[in-house]
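@channel sequence for tomorrow's demo:
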Amino acid sequence: MNGRFSSTLAAFLGGWCLLTGAVQAEGLSGPSSTAAALAPGDGLTDPQFRSDFPLSALPGFYAWKDGLAEGGFSFGADYLALGQWGNSDIGSGDAGGGIARLFGTYDAGGGHSYTFKLENRHAYGAVAPQFFGLDSGALSITGTAFNDSGTLLTNLFYTYRDPEGRFTLQAGQIDVTDFLDIYSLVSPYTAFQNLAFNTNPTINAPNPGLGLAAGVQLSPNVYAVASIADANGDPSSPDTGVFSSGETFKSLEIGYTSGPGRIYFDNIHLTFWQSDASDDLGRPKDKGVSFSASWLFGNAWAPFLRYGQSDGTAALYERSLSTGIGWYRRNTDLAGLGLNWAEGNGIDGRQFTAEAFYRFSISPNFQITPSVQFIENPLLDPTQSSITLFGLRARMLF
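C-alpha cells (generated this afternoon):
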C-alpha cells in the first residue's frame, strides 16, 4: 500500500476511534443518497396526494417489493429526465438528458448493511444539461448530475451502524456528496438544479470511488462527519488505484442539529476539506472551508445561508455565497428560490445566479418540476449581460 495513503488512512481511523465514545450518531444519508431515494416524500410524507400512480398500475410488483423488504432487502428504480432551454447568444440553445438508476440496501441485522446503486446517465442531444451553462457562456453547472457519463457504479459499500446509535461507519465505493456539506434542498434529483445550490461549488468533491466515512453524534445536538476518498474516482471504471497513487480527498464536518432525525432539516455546520493534486490528470491540489445554516420551521419553511471559499485552483468557484428558501406544501410539493454570488476560479469578476422551481408531487413516486435560472454577468462570455434558462424535470420512482 502507498505510504502516503497508509499514513493518511491511519490518522483518519485514529481520529475516528477517538470520537466513537459519543452518543446518538446519525447515519451518512443525505437527500441525494440511496436511503433518501428509498423513502420518497423528503421524509415529510403526507398521505394527501393527487394520485397513487404508478402504485395503482403495478400492485403486484409493489407487493413483491414489500415482501422482499420484510426480509431485509429493499430496492427501487427511477428514471429522471431534464430538458433546458436558454436565450444565450452562443451555444446550442437547448439541452436534454436522462438518468436511469437501480439502487437498494440489504439489512443483515446487528447494525450491518450493504448498499448499491447503478446509474446510466445520457444526453438526448449534443449537449447534456450539466454542461448547458458552460455551453451558453456562464461559469455555471445548470443541470447537476445530468451528464452523458454512461453506466456508473456510484454506490457499493458496507455500513455499520452502532445499535446504540453512537456512530456509523461506511467503507467501499462511496459518493461523498451523499453526506458532504448537505442541507434539505441539496439534491439535484428533487430540489435545486444549479450546482450553486447543491454541494458547495467551492468544494472540489471527487467522483464516486473507494473511500471511508464515519459519522458520530458528539452530543444530542452536535455531530461530526469525516471522510477520506479516492480523489481520482471514476465510477464508470471502478478501480483500486488510490492504493498506489495515494491521491485522496479528505473532509471533516462539525455541525449542530435539533436532533439525530433532523440532521439535514435543521442543520448548522462548518466543513473543512482538502484534495491532493494529480499529475496524471493535470489537477492541482486544492483546499477550502464552507459554512452552511438551514432550518426547517413548522415542517414547511426552509431558509438557508451557505458560504464557501477555496484556494481557487481546482474547484469551480473560489468564493461563493448562496441564500434562499424552500417551501414544503401539504402533499410534499416543494417550491424553492435561491440567490448566489460567486467569484470564478482564476477568472476576474463576479457572477450572479438565481434559480426558482416548483416541484409538483403528483404522487409519492411521480414528480414534475418546472424551473427558471437567471445568470447575470456570465463569466465565460462577457459580451452578454445575462442569460435566462428554463427547465423541466420529471422523476418516476418504481
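heads up for whoever presents: Confidence is low (pLDDT under 50) at residues 5-26.
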